[in-house]
Specification:
Number of strands: 6
Radius of gyration: 16 Å
Shape: globular
CATH architecture: Alpha-Beta Complex
CATH topology: Maf protein
Strand order of the largest sheet: 3-4-5-6
Largest sheet: 4 strands, antiparallel
Number of helices: 6
Order of helices and strands: EHEHEHEEEHHH
Distance between the termini: 7 Å
Strand content: 25-35%
Structural class: alpha+beta
Length: about 180
Amino acid sequence: MAVTDLRFVSRNPQKVKEVQAILGRAGITVESIDVAIEELQTDNSDRLIRHKAIAAYERIRQPLIVEHTGLHLDYLNGLPGGLTQVFWDKLLAERFASLFGNTSDPSATARTQVAYVDGKTVFVSAGEIKGRIASAPSGSQEFQWDCVFVPSGYMETFARIGSTKKNEISMRRQALDKLVEHLK
């Protein structure tokens, strides 16, 4: 039996909108659950997403999904990865772009992992998109580092290309598409 509705534990309204839009195309209704789940602070994204999923399930006690997205900078050998939020909160847009968009190698990979947990199993799917860090923020700074990440094949940041185009090409879309296949 295919899943037609999911609970998504996230405090980020922009992520909720994207997940609802992407999964809505697959006929899945997403209920937002605005609960803080303390994330494991590690550069190991696999450990982080599994820990987050289990912690969320222990709070909600219903099948649900959680998500984690990180930037893996070539210049920093894949950091900050699972620690992207920590870096972003300390540096913010201008300093992040200045530090990493002006390096000898501004290449980056944006990676999303989505975990579905139903109390018996944890299923993790992932998606990633290559790109680079812009030398200066461009577009709305409302959705964290969307204003500094330029996906490969584009001249503008995620913030500038807009949510419709981003939802067609993003790492979040890739991860959610794999989740939909699993849930069928």
